[in-house]
Amino acid sequence: MATPFEDFDEDLSLTSQEECENSARSILAKLRPEWTPSEITFEYFSVGITNKIFSAGFGTEHVIFRVFGHNTSKVIDRENEVTAWRQLAEHGFAASLYGKFNNGLICGFLEGKSLKIEEMRDSRFHVNIAKRIAQLHTSVPNDGKARVFDKMRTFLKQLDPKFEKSCQQEFFDKKFPKDLEAEIKKIESLIVKLKEPIAFCHNDLLVHNIVYNSEKKSIEFIDYEYAFPNYALFDIANHFCEYAGKLTEDHAEFFFSILGVEGTPDYSKCLTKDEKWLFINDYLRFGREKEHCDTRIASMFKNLPLFEAAAHLFWAVWALVQAQNSTIDFDYLTYAYARYQQYEKRYQKYISGTQH
Fold this sequence. Notes:
Keywords: Lipid biosynthesis, Lipid metabolism, Phospholipid biosynthesis, Phospholipid metabolism. Its EC number is 2.7.1.82. One of its GO terms (biological process) is phosphatidylethanolamine biosynthetic process. It comes from Caenorhabditis remanei (Caenorhabditis vulgaris). This protein is of the alpha+beta class. It has two domains: about 5-110, Phosphorylase Kinase, domain 1, CATH 3.30.200.20; about 115-355, Aminoglycoside phosphotransferase (APH), C-terminal lobe (Aminoglycoside 3'-phosphotransferase, Chain: A, domain 2). Helices cover about 50% and strands about 15% of the residues. The protein has twelve helices and eleven strands. The strands form three sheets. The protein has a six-stranded mixed beta sheet, with helices on both faces. A three-stranded antiparallel beta sheet has the order 7-9-10. The radius of gyration is 21 Å and the shape is globular. It starts with 5 loop residues before the first strand and ends with a helix.
């Protein structure tokens, strides 16, 4: 039975904690009328002028409020987010979604803590992450249509070829090709031919989106802004890219304050070939292909650089749009170039591999 979903005509402040909590109490009076307003407690996980994530609790029960940042709708399809979230919750892959307000969502609380970078690199976690990805891909229905390239083009439509600052314009003109659409087409034509399986994917499995419950020793995924049907190998490849570290609009302040990430990923910290091979082996072992053979692993491993390239291109275009729209004081343009460089490197690796 689906969890009831309610719509609240409230705006939660990003700048005033008092106003934000008063609005939250107004929502909770309808959502949780049995809660005593004066005894509701609040705990903040992310606070700033761009986004706000906090819990509201009464006794042992908690709900999470996610207040959208300014201009995030430029890169996040909020309608898709709600649809994807509810679908994932229905199949046990997300906390319950209770409702939405004018600038955010209210959801259930998942016990556990987000992994740290060094923990995600620990081989002891690899098997559990691979297992959870396999479970997600094999359990949630999809329509068989990969949307990753449509999403890239949606980002591209938001990109203004003219930047406000001359230094940004000069950097963009020097570092990026004039026709990014051609790059999307180029990689799309190669990936479509491979006929890799399509699944319902998270598409943003960076460290902050992976939660570990130490009591249950289980892995869960959070944040579904970019969840949609996609090539299963894209989800895996994208996860592999995230071992270098990455910022997102919703998590930038988290990384600044907790992880001290400066923005430029360190790709020397990504998994080795052997570690990737073992990860894919575990993924297949827990998926539908339980009786898989080495030839399937070899096939996925051969195609992996192309999907890693696609992931880098996806986030490079995303970051270019952020450079023009985000209110965070962060050099998204340099970050976009770091991802674009990796796109070119992984693309060339795939091409050279097919020529031998």
